[in-house]
Write a structure and sequence with these properties.
Distance between the termini: 38 Å
Strand order of the largest sheet: 7-6-1-10-11-12-13-14-15-16
Number of helices: 10
Number of domains: 1
Structural class: alpha/beta
Shape: globular
Length: 327
């Protein structure tokens, strides 16, 4: 029996850093962009190859935390895909549910960084997005304690409701970190899905988008969530920390501002999987779950690569203060 199976993407990440990348103001969605001269050769100061993808990133934490973990998702029939499988096996993650797709290459991202914190990510959505319900070996998944759904897109998004319903029918607990595409599903369908979810992870922007309430009005956001999801709702706030509701209490914590941030790739995955690890192990202690989630996320931020720096089971870490208030 598996403790947890993760569903989501698997990707190759290529980190490029150069002093010759410049930032400039202009006609960009964010108001600024990373620029370089057209037709020029640009010297790269550093290049790092790593693996990413929400499905495999979270599986890495669960394995390091001592859980029997497996990953279900798609890769291409190519060198990056084989490299991902090899790394998962080294981490002790079962790969028997990995689906190989000939139609597209393995998902890839190129992370372009200048000398500061600015970065731009070029994303190729490949084989992971081609996984359908026909690729999932349902009969082999019945004896699992938890499912974790990382953000799902394209055809993989179409499996969202069926995976949740399968978990509910087979008494498998389920945690979900939905994509914008999943949150764009019809409201009634989302209500039906979230009513069966045990732990829901969202960031501020996603929570505001889903509830149609300003992210500054946290009290009203969580009132709305209480109507939609009877389980635990976790709202991350970037450098401002996290807020968690169990329907009765609100828990909050702020990140350690003194931590050295090297790379933010995969920070959300490392927090969510760290939180869920202690939530499972302690049978619902939210304060401890927040502390491990924050510590795992911060440890990940100190190294380049979404699977770097992740905490192992029983690792020592600085515990932060968590406040608890009655709703």
């Amino acid at each position: 029996m598996y403790d947890i199976i993760t569903f989501g993407s698997a990707a190759q990440d290529i980190h490029l850093k150069s002093k010759e990348f410049k930032t400039a103001s202009g006609d960009f969605v964010t108001g600024r962009g990373i620029c370089f001269n057209l037709g020029s050769k640009i010297n790269i100061d550093d290049i790092i190859f790593a693996t990413g993808g929400g499905g495999t990133n979270t599986a890495a934490t669960f394995a390091k935390q001592g859980f029997r973990a497996a990953f279900c998702g798609g890769i291409g029939v190519d060198a990056p895909g084989l490299g991902i499988v090899r790394e998962l096996k080294i981490l002790g993650i079962d790969t028997k549910f990995v689906v190989k797709k000939k139609e597209r290459h393995t998902n890839s991202s190129v992370i372009i960084s200048s000398t500061g914190d600015d970065r731009t990510i070029l994303v190729y959505r490949g084989a992971s997005d081609l996984v359908t319900t026909k690729d999932i070996p349902w009969k082999k998944l019945k004896k699992v304690k938890w499912f974790y759904l990382a953000p799902l897109t394209d055809l993989l998004c179409d499996t969202f409701e069926e995976i949740v319903n399968f978990a509910n029918e087979n008494e498998i607990k389920i945690a979900v970190n939905p994509s914008k595409e999943q949150l764009s599903l019809p409201e009634e369908k989302l209500k039906s899905i979230f009513a069966k979810v045990d732990v829901l992870f969202l960031n501020q922007e996603e929570a505001s988008y889903l509830t149609k309430i300003s992210f500054e009005n946290e009290q009203e956001i969580f009132k709305k969530f209480d109507e939609m999801c009877p389980g635990i709702v976790v709202m991350t706030k970037g450098k401002d920390g996290v807020v968690v509701s169990d329907g009765k209490y609100i828990y909050s914590a702020v990140a350690d501002s003194n931590s050295l941030i090297v790379d933010t790739t995969g920070a959300g995955d490392s927090f969510a999987s760290g939180f869920l690890s202690d939530y499972i192990r302690t049978e619902g202690d939210i304060e401890k779950s927040i502390q491990l989630g924050m510590a795992n996320g911060l440890a990940n931020l100190t190294e380049v690569g979404a699977k770097k720096g992740l905490l192992a089971k029983d690792a020592e870490f600085k515990r932060i203060e968590v406040t608890k208030q009655t709703k």
